[in-house]
User: Fold these one by one.
Assistant:
Number 1:
Amino acid sequence: MNKTTISEVHKYVEQEVKLGAWLANKRSSGKIAFLQLRDGTGFIQGVVAKSDVGEEIFQLAKSITQESSLYVTGKVQKDERSPLGYELLVTGLEVIHQAVDYPITPKEHGTEFLMDHRHLWLRSKRQHAVMKIRNEIIRATFEYFNNEGFTKVDPPILTGSSPEGGSELFHTKYFEEDAFLSQSGQLHLEAAAMALGKVFSFGPTFRAEKSKTRRHLIEFWMIEPEMAFYDHEDSLKVQEEYVSYIVQSVLKNCQIELKTLGRDTTKLEKIQAPFPRITYDDALKFLHEKGFTDVQWGDDFGAPHETAIAENYDKPVFITHYPTALKAFYMQPDPGRPEVVLCADLIAPEGYGEIIGGSERINDFDLLQQRLEEHNLPLEAYKWYLELRQYGSVPHSGFGLGLERTVAWISGVEHVRETIPFPRLLNRLYP
Ligand code: 4AD
């Protein structure tokens, strides 16, 4: 007997296999029971025909409760109607553990109830699909940056100096000293880029943001590439190629999951570099023409503004050259126009908002020191960062892609809470 998994049954057509599985759902009509089985690798329908298995196994099949664990044996058959393309003609069943009153039933549940039961909700077909897509994006990310000659670097999680400003920092004690949980690995990645050329990180990021929106998490995961000798323009090229690569990888490797989620894949097929670009100034002009009177030069764009801009395109759009005063201290001012910086936010289509923030970094020691002072940042904590501009400073650029917002967009899932296994939200630290 071949012991296998649902994802591998295609290798055993017309053969008998054994699976370890859970019962996701079940229905029966007369002398046939249909078991929706899941094993983590996928979902398959098991067909139990009384005439094939006899009275005892048939009654057992009918008595198994939702989310009980079992060993199932059966013959693999082609089935064009199922998303997997196969079903299992069950020949034997063995219950490992009978589940009692599983709380998440096939009927509708409210969001709070599902979030309270996130440890179980993760088992559902939809959540399974989102997690598989998340995994594919991570896999394709490592593949892309490895192919392009980047070195993976792991910046610290406990830090003394912060890149994105003070108000959103999580404070903690570091023995006698004050420390923060990382809100971006960028500063350390800049140091690593001076040692290794092209680097990237993938790690958790913490922001004590009091925002309760469908795009904000308190703890999220960021992919941060940093590249020596790359200017702003070079960095935009990496961004559009990388984002196209992960979208095309999901299309190639997650067909079943995209189908489960009902994602319109024709929209994803269009995501190919190059991406359109618009300056902050032109974006503002467009918003004024559209009747947005609530935003003036120097203001940041909110979600409604980003959505209105993104609606003009069927690919992600770069908004470039934001006002210097709006952005972080480290961004390189435009040499011809220092009131704006060489930066870009990448806005996803279909209202999913900003997925990337990036910029060219200041490489001049005096200017960087001046900007730190203007931002009232303690020079002592940034001494090491300033030193990068004292020993062979070079033009360099980098960016950060928010994984959860990217998963939401590619999966077509409305809220980021469904894109991370255990979301940390404003009022949620459990499960
Ligand atoms: O634009 P941000 O703040 O950029 C940085 O942190 C830079 N230091 C990155 C770099 O250049 N190395 O954040 C980058 C991305 C955003 O575009 C967004 O996708 C995501 O991180 N992000 C969040 N995702 C979920 N919840 C939040 N609270 C987020 N804040 C930012």
Number 2:
Amino acid sequence: TTLTCRLHIKGMTCTSCSSTVESALQSIPGVQKAVVALATEEAEIRYDPKLVSADQLIKGVDDTGFEAILIT
Ligand code: 9UX
């Protein structure tokens, strides 16, 4: 099973910021794909819900110093 989660990410101002968030998400076990768009301040993550939850994805972003808010 694969679920898709979209997050709004606050505080990113350059591509290094978005790369930091993207790498953090990609490093979480169960994440199959993570794309962070600076322009829209959004992340789209495909993940295996048996291994990781949306709450844990949000926590993973928050740990980088940026704030994540669940969109869908
Ligand atoms: Mo870019 Mo983001 O220089 O915290 S890395 S602003």
